Amino acid sequence: MTTIQLTVNGRVAEATIEPRAHLADVLRDQLDLTGTHLGCEHGVCGACTLLLDGATARSCITLAVACDGAAVTTIEGLDEDEIAAELRTAFAREHALQCGYCTPGMIMSARDLVLRLDHADEQAIRVGLSGNLCRCTGYAGIVRAISAVISARRQRGIAAMVGAGRTSLGPVGSQPGATAISSMRPAATEVKLSRSAASNGLDPLEVVPAKSFDAAFTVSAAPEQVFALFGQPKILAACFPGATVTDIPAPDRIEGEIRVAIGPLSAAFRGSARIERNAANLSGRLFGTGRDQQSRTSTSGQIGWRMIPIDDGRATRVELAIGYSLTGPLAQIARDGLVRDLASRLTTTFAQNCERHINGTFSSAETIEPQRLDAFGLLLDVAWTRFTAIVRRLRRS
């Protein structure tokens, strides 16, 4: 018997298995995730399709021991996913399911197509679904449903993600130029939410991020004041270096960009986001995607937050659960340690600006002109901090 550790739908799970056990059997028999269906058990029908390290995979022919440390997303993990929700609605509208047995795997493959196809091309959709068999519908309704979702998202300005999903045949992570599974696997400490954040309901994943971590900061203001600030997207964006909101098409949706300067390089990630707010417990979530056209780098992510009163309600601890995925050329510099350090410094700056706004010391000019995020300067700051820390350790030894 062998013990493996997986991150399943954003939660760390351990299982003791036989070396011959397949991933689908472990998910169904040990973790009670029966939404992953077993059909042919030969990797042909696609009913068992799920996401393994962000790429679609057949779990009935994937040995579980080979997935130790990997991130797995099943159909249950897409309960709150925006794309999956749009697909479910479209499937119902277009009568794209009958018995429903193939539907979980079909939704997984459809979601992959929605992420990476530039436009609703029927031939490309049919080719993409060729590994998912349906004995009931004849596929016409399924193709219409997927086409409708792709068209609607592109019309809303949500671009296809470069590098998303699978672009060639072969085992997950084996595609030319792709990152190997071993280097994509987030450590348990990176994807596991802190006990306090998990207990506050910040852990549901919307865009299935490749990396996740927690952060927190304190603001010298009442929780209600901070929560109210988080309900003003344009002002909130002005508090975050490099961010700006360009449009608010709906109360729960925003469009905007984040500009980044990395030495002589510059990038403008333009995209959209959906915001959820819960006034009852002073919490919320943001799910967004963006793309830099020049570098062809795409990003997606989520931020969950909750306001915790401290100092008898005179101050607020803001707990954050952050998840992100980055694909494209700029992803090569986004090492985990640097991202965490950069996030820490950005969070500090963001917290200071939020407090200044609440206290009335954040000028109107600053709320109009977003601060520029100079990532190169931040990287130098991170490198210097790490260097001095190493020197101090060497001196003590």
UniProtKB/TrEMBL annotation:
InterPro entries: 2Fe-2S-bd, 2Fe-2S-bd_dom_sf, 2Fe-2S_ferredoxin-like_sf, 2Fe-2S_ferredoxin-type, 2Fe2S_fd_BS, Beta-grasp_dom_sf, CO_DH_gsu, Diverse_Oxidoreductases
Keywords: 2Fe-2S, Iron, Iron-sulfur, Metal-binding, Oxidoreductase
Keyword Iron-sulfur attributed: yes
CDD domains in UniProt: fer2
Domain of life (superkingdom): Bacteria
Gene3D superfamilies: 3.10.20.30, 3.30.530.20, [2Fe-2S]-binding domain (1.10.150.120)
Ranges for domain 2Fe-2S ferredoxin-type: 2-78
PROSITE patterns (alphabetical): 2FE2S_FER_1, 2FE2S_FER_2
Record-given protein name: Carbon monoxide dehydrogenase
